């Protein structure tokens, strides 16, 4: 049988060790993600690590280092599709970027294990854990640091509650007014309200603005016909 003829105990033991290392290190990374209730938790990170490991290990045994390099290139690009699946857009905010980056790193850990670079795989795992845990206090400090809102690049939104029968016309007028005031628009989304009104939500392109100018444009919007109310919101940029 081809299997019996091609089976080599040394190669099998090498693959077993590589997969065991990838499994263990993927578990370490995934456990931290699972503890924080992220979208991609323990099992996902483990499967990414051992999958990348097996592809690279198989290439190593079939084609040597040159074949492994080609497979690593495909792993690097292919894992991006999996990472894209955990990135979600909620209004003007985007979630899941850190989870996607962690999956990318888990694939790198598995690739290192598959290429028999065990020490490098362990070192990378330590750095991934440090990035996801030790940097959290620094992120908190930076987010709470005082800064001028006018000089900070952020995502701003303008919301206007209008009569439903005038929503289409006012959507165009709102866009023209904001553009004329040098507030570039990313998108305007109408949202139906239970009271028979429509809320027009305009998301502005990430920029630095003067709050006084934004307040002035809101006052102009409030005085437009068929406008019930208007306000603006601000969220930190990524």
From TrEMBL:
The chain crosses the membrane at residues 12-30, 42-62, 68-88, 100-130. It is a multi-pass membrane protein. Gene3D superfamilies: 3.30.70.260. Keywords: Cell inner membrane, Cell membrane, Membrane, Transmembrane, Transmembrane helix. The keyword DNA-binding does not apply. Pfam families: MgtC. It is found in: Cell inner membrane; Cell membrane. Residues 19-139 form the MgtC/SapB/SrpB/YhiD N-terminal domain. Belongs to the MgtC/SapB family. PANTHER family: PROTEIN MGTC. This is Protein MgtC.
């Amino acid at each position: 049988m081809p299997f019996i003829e091609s089976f080599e105990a040394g190669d099998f033991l090498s693959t077993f060790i590589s997969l065991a290392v990838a499994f263990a290190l993927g578990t370490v990374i995934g456990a931290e993600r699972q503890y924080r209730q992220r979208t991609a938790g323990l099992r996902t990170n483990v499967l990414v690590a051992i999958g990348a490991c097996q592809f690279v290990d198989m290439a190593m045994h079939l084609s040597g280092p040159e074949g492994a390099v080609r497979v690593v290139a495909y792993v690097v690009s292919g894992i991006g599709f999996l990472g894209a699946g955990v990135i979600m857009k909620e209004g003007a905010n985007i979630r899941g970027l850190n989870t996607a980056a962690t999956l990318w790193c888990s694939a790198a850990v598995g690739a290192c294990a598959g290429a028999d670079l065990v020490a490098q795989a362990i070192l990378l795992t330590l750095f991934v854990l440090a990035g996801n845990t030790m940097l959290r206090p620094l992120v908190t400090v930076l987010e709470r640091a005082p800064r001028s809102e006018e000089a900070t690049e952020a995502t701003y939104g303008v919301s206007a509650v209008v009569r439903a029968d005038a929503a289409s016309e006012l959507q165009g007028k709102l866009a023209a007014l904001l553009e004329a005031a040098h507030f570039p628009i990313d998108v305007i989304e109408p949202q139906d309200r239970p009271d028979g009104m429509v809320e027009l939500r305009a998301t502005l392109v990430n920029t630095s603005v003067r709050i006084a100018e934004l307040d002035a444009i809101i006052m102009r919007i409030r005085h437009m016909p068929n406008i019930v109310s208007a306000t603006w919101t601000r969220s930190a940029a990524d």
